[in-house]
Design brief:
about 30% strand; extended; 4 helices; alpha+beta
Length: about 140
């Protein structure tokens, strides 16, 4: 048990606020080096894509501390995460040769010697009905 003297008159807190530019991040991700790998496996419910995509985003920061801060900001920005997942899903769909269904993703963002590294592991079922329809020339819905 402790005696209290009531609530303090003032409380102080120091914080840093960082704001990222969505347009600049879009440009950086658009010019990123993209490397993908993966394969389709036949599962009981049909074919499923398992793969990973790495994006290397070159940034103008030379100091490792600045790149580390940049990586921390990027890891918390939902727009960057969504853009990276969309790039990975598009890459996977091209490699799989068919559109993908709802994807399950794991995303890691870290500082890299060139700037920022984003790794996306992706698992998604293939949507085969559309692929078969296009192959037959069937355009009905």
């Amino acid at each position: 048990m402790a005696k209290t003297r009531g609530e303090r008159l003032l409380r102080t807190r120091q914080a840093s606020f960082v704001r990222a530019s969505d347009g600049r991040f879009r440009d950086l991700l658009g010019s990123a080096d993209v490397i993908s790998e993966g394969a389709t496996r036949e599962e009981s419910d049909g074919p499923v894509w398992y793969g990973s995509t790495s994006l290397i985003v070159t940034v103008p920061f030379e100091q490792p501390e600045t790149r580390a801060l940049f990586a921390e900001v990027a890891a918390r920005d939902p727009h960057i995460r969504i853009r990276a997942i969309r790039i990975a899903k598009r890459e996977a769909s091209i490699r799989a040769g068919a559109p993908l269904g709802r994807a399950s993703c794991e995303l890691r963002i870290s500082a890299d010697a060139r700037g920022l590294r984003i790794d996306v592991d992706l698992q998604a079922p293939l949507i085969e009905e559309r692929r078969r329809g296009r192959m037959r020339g069937d355009h009905s819905i």
